[in-house]
Amino acid sequence: MGSLLKSRELEKRFNEIGKKIKACLKEGTIPDKRLFRELDMEFKKIKRVYEDQGDTLNMLHVEHNYLLYKSVERLQSDINSSFHMFVGALFKLIERHKLREYPQESFKRMLGMYRWISSLIENRRKDLDLKKVGKNWIKLTKEAKILKIADILELCTQMSINIILKNYEEITENLKITSVKEYNFAKRLEDRIRPILGILELIEIPLAFLATSMSYEILYKLNKKRLHYLVRSLFFEKSKDKKTRIQGEIDKITKNMLNFSKLSLKRYEKYLKLREKDEDENVLLASSLKELDKLAASYYFYAYSKKDIFTAWQRLDTIKHYIVRKVFTEKVPLSQNLITYFGEEWAVLYVFAKLYLLKEEVRVKSQLLTQEWEKEIFLQIYSTLEGLEDLFKYEGKHTRGYTLKIMTAQFSGGFSEYFIHELFREFFENGVIDEKTPDEFRELFECIKTARKDSIILNDHVEKDKPDIDIHIRGKCAVFLKNAKVDSDVVKQIWKEIELCKKKNIKKVFYGINFIKNLENIEYIKNTFDKIAETFKEIDVHIFDIKDLVSTLLSELGRCGKSKLNFPELDLYKVLDY
């Protein structure tokens, strides 16, 4: 009886010290060393009593609290020791809970304290030894998973996000791979993340899907940085054997990127489906970026592994369409650097594709020449063009029946207006508007269908010395097409066109833009039309991509089965200068 009273008295004093530590934390301060010395003394006393009594249950309860408080003591002086003690405390808590489960409310209250201290560790996560932290986290989470302790599994998952993955995220973001040493460091990071991901994949709670999505995204970004390094290395490498080895590594990495980007998006979508919150701007941005990673992975695969530059070009076109929709329609704040990057990728690939096609055309023409001296000249030209190809990071293997066409910008622009005008007239006669009609073009198609055919006018000059309206559907709307680069002069022209529409009481205006030529200008174009919308509130302005309009019109006319047009879509895009 005496030893029982003694143990209760000792535990009471121990708990009082614990309350003082909590009080300091609530005030935002770390308790002084004197308080922790008292804690050490009381813990030694109570530990001796419980050991003498063989009271494992209460011993474990005191131990998990003691280690938790000690983790607070080390927060400032040794964050790695602090985390180690924090995990040790959780192990003792699990062991105690396994012997006899705590009442649910008490258990939740205890875990509230753990979450609080976990957030304090998170504030100093940059100073943690992630390799050791990862190993400790894996052991702890495995134990919680085996025992199916849901509350601790959720805490472990939260720790994986806030303490481990956010750290790896920042390291990856700041990593620049310019040497073999940095390349190998990226591989080591991947090796550390994979076991953590393996455990997270076994946890079926909403937060775990977010954590796995983050893990796959980090792996994707690490592989992307490794890919860019290898592409540079391949460009400068002279040894054929080394080139073959580098290409083999590129093939593996691009396949990994396809897989990682797909799984990152898939897990994030599952997380969004299970969480009980409305979507906000951050969620829309995260979803958009993950979808963009998936599209980009496909581009990298065809450009650098398959060496199919024309399929890669099509993938860039899909990326362009996606970016335009996100920025203009869904108002997702994609960064200018990201948009500029894809614009530059398209510009370089565009030049390479033209050079490659010219080389192939010279090769074919050289075989048809009968004069030996002319054939010799063409072979020299072919050899020179082949040498120029080596100055690019791309390599071409498939022509797919493409040929090089030469035309002026004025011709492609004028042809756009002419052909789209013909498509409008064709849609007036044969198109249908129903539940399958794409929402993006429904208003425009309704303008066409409800007008008179002779009201659909090409290059309508409605006022002398003023801009003409590319396609004027009188009494309904005006359509302007910009098939070239949208620079400051084009923007001035757009303002004049809108002012003309205001003067002529045209309330609905549609602008078709060649966005593949203006990918890096998207923010500039968006800001221009935002200002126009603010200035001309009485005019309803819509923006679309010329290619998307043409593709949709051809698709809709094909759906109705009555179209008289017979123009291959691929050839049409070439003439439209896409």
Structure commentary:
The protein is mainly alpha-helical. Among the domains are: 128 residues, no CATH class; 167 residues, no CATH class. It contains 20 helices and five strands. Strands 1-2-3-4-5 form a five-stranded mixed β-sheet, with helices on both faces. Helix 18 links the parallel strand 4 and strand 5. Helix 11 packs antiparallel against helix 12. It is elongated, with a radius of gyration of 33 Å. About 2% of the residues have low confidence.
Helices, by number, come to 20
Q: Strand count, sense and closure of the main sheet?
A: 5 strands, mixed
Distance between the termini: 91 Å
The run of helices and strands is HHHHHHHHHHHHHHHHEEEHEHEHH
Q: What is the rounded Rg?
A: 33 Å
Q: Order of strands in the sheet with the most strands?
A: 1-2-3-4-5
Number of strands: 5
Overall pLDDT, averaged?
Answer: 86
